[in-house]
Amino acid sequence: MTPIRWPSEAIWEAVEPALPGFTVEVLPQIDSTNTELMRRARVGQLDPALLVAERQTAGRGRLGRQWHSEATNASPLASLAFSLGVPLSPSDWSGLSLVAGVSVAQSLHPDLRLKWPNDIWFRDRKLAGILIETASFDGIRYVVIGVGINMLQRSAQGLSTPPAWLAELLPTIDAPHALLRIIPSLVRDVHAFEAQGFTPFHNRFAALDCLAGQAVTLSDGTAGTAQGVDVTGALLVHTAVGMKTITSSEVSVRPSQGLG
Ligand code: BTN
């Protein structure tokens, strides 16, 4: 099998000036790129790093779910899995997960939309997911932004909704090129968030928000209508008992009907 040519150098050259000490590493296989960067952070390795895995054996999703990707040893380009780890010290952390979603979606294709807080959807199907975790070490807060993208058609087995894949929108793009499109702008956006918080991203999120105006059901069974997000990135849901502000990433939000 021909080895995959990852644009590690091009990414490093684009990012390192803004992120001194930045490294790019591609592994043929690991349990989870998020788990690995968190392990490193816990032993004090807090330098900015991009870790890409051609295959994950224990990919993790939000809300304690597993993240299954189609990538196998035979077909490692069927999905893209990477984590960006950076030390970060914003004055307010609220909205970071939305910022990551906005950044990844906008660097890939104008037809992509976001399902709060940061699932990337194409029409009524999920194309990519983002898992953000943080660790503190010696007073430094390290954030790991893990992104998983379906690149090629994949089966719907075990998924609550059928998936979308990037080749539907961009037939000629492969995982290395998608990575090159995403990383420099993701680093820029994370830095903008660190300096200015969620405010500059509020309109960008609103333009991509596929839940706005939709009937939704929260994981506690409450029904309502999604009304966009507030200045902190919290989801506003109009319910029978008034407006609910959903901040917890532990609350899952389902459109009552499919997304159009
Ligand atoms: C979700 O939609 O629930 C989030 C999925 C995040 C998956 C990515 S793949 C790279 C990184 N490593 C992981 O174990 N998870 C994230």
Plain-language structure description:
This protein is 23% helix and 29% strand. The chain is an alpha+beta fold. The protein has two domains: 8-207, BirA Bifunctional Protein, domain 2; 211-255, SH3 type barrels (Roll), CATH 2.30.30. It has a seven-stranded mixed β-sheet with strand order 1-2-3-7-6-5-4, sandwiched between helices. Strands 11-10-9-8-12 form a five-stranded antiparallel β-sheet. The longest helix is centred in the C-terminal third of the chain and has 22 residues, at 175-196. The model has no long low-confidence stretch (mean pLDDT 92). Biotin (BTN) is lined by residues 32-34, 56, 59-62, 65, 67, 81-83, 119, 129-131, 146-148.
Q: How would you describe this structure in keywords?
A:
260 residues, alpha+beta, BirA Bifunctional Protein, domain 2, SH3 type barrels, 2 domains, five-stranded antiparallel beta sheet, 5 helices, 12 strands, globular, binds biotin
